[in-house]
Design brief:
With about 120 residues, this protein is mainly alpha-helical. The chain has one domain. The protein is about 75% helix and about 0% strand. It is built from four helices and no strands. α2 runs antiparallel to α4. The radius of gyration is 28 Å and the shape is rod-shaped. The mean pLDDT is about 75.
């Protein structure tokens, strides 16, 4: 009598691997992808702020900031600003507020994902 090899069927089906990928691996990959793409996202938002305010160059922004600093050192009054610089300052402050809120949300979500 010849010995036949015994075939053992594994208990794992392809569906278990698919479910594990969809539930575990895919969300982790998406989370990492979103975190690594954040700098590009903020760069595009910053570019939008500058174009929305109508600022022509970075030199104009520097000039407005220097003017504000000089005037603030001399007196406590609001310095005279150009319309473009006022618009830029308003949109910049809104951008910073939104970024801080987003970072708080990211920290809460990251904390929940780590627990």
């Amino acid at each position: 009598m010849a010995c036949r090899p015994v075939s053992v069927k594994p208990d794992y089906s392809i569906w278990k691997y698919i479910v594990a990928f969809l539930v575990d691996t895919l969300p982790r990959l998406m989370y990492r992808y979103l975190l690594l793409n954040i700098p590009a996202y903020y760069h595009s938002r910053f570019t939008h702020i500058i174009t929305e305010a109508g600022v022509v160059s970075l030199r104009e922004i520097r000039h407005g900031i220097r003017q504000t600093i000089r005037h603030t050192k001399c007196s406590h009054e609001e310095p005279p600003k150009s319309h473009r610089f006022k618009k830029f300052e308003e949109t910049w402050n809104k951008f910073i507020e939104s970024v801080v809120k987003e970072w708080e949300t990211y920290n809460i979500v990251s904390g929940l994902l780590l627990t």
